[in-house]
């Protein structure tokens, strides 16, 4: 193994919403980016490589707001891999937050293209399910009634994420489906 390999530090940026950031209920050391960094470094110890995982999640953000900070919070890090997780705030009922499906698709595609200029490794994620009975948006407004709850409205965004992943050939981490499968088991 060469000295260059031994000294190589890989950078992963996890770019998304409160699911990525971990707020308000997850301590910083237990967020998925922190756990990912610990597990990868434990595994890679034998190879003497190191991984830094940067948590670029911001609670409450939609894809419009994510695009506004993509340069500073993602591209500036010159990552080797970016994990992209958005949608749960694009589905929000407030007019200043809601991003319609076509605009969501365009924003997600622009994120992929801009990140692709500096990083070929990208993974798209669907957000985790929303438990309507515990989710204040589902309880406080009638907006989600036509879908039968906020999570069912989110399923339309999840489908866009799946389509974009398929169309771009990017790997998909389908958290919505994984959580549902786990709940059924």
**How big is the Rg?**
17 Å
Poorly predicted regions: 1-7
Q: What percentage of the residues does DSSP assign to strands (E)? A: 15-25%
Structural class: alpha/beta
The outline comes out as: globular
Task: Provide the spatial order of strands within the biggest beta sheet.
Answer: 2-1-3-4-5
User: Main beta sheet: strand number and arrangement?
Assistant: 5 strands, parallel
Instruction: Note the gap between the termini.
Output: 44 Å
What's the overall average pLDDT, rounded?
A: 90
The helical percent reads 40-55%
- Contiguous helical run count: 8
> What is the H-and-E element order?
HEHHEHEHEHHEH
How many strands appear in the DSSP assignment? 5
Structure description:
- It is built from eight helices and five strands; from the N terminus they run H-E-H-H-E-H-E-H-E-H-H-E-H.
- Helix 4 (63-73) packs parallel to helix 5 (101-116) and helix 5 packs across helix 7.
- It is an alpha/beta fold.
- The longest helix is centred in the C-terminal third of the chain and has 19 residues, at 150-168.
- The chain is globular.
- The protein has helices at 3-7, 18-21, 32-44, 63-73, 101-116, 136-140, 150-168, 175-184; strands at 9-16, 50-57, 81-85, 121-126, 172-174.
- 45% of the residues lie in helices and 16% in strands.
- Strands 2-1-3-4-5 form a five-stranded parallel beta sheet, sandwiched between helices.
- Mean pLDDT is 90; it is low at 1-7.
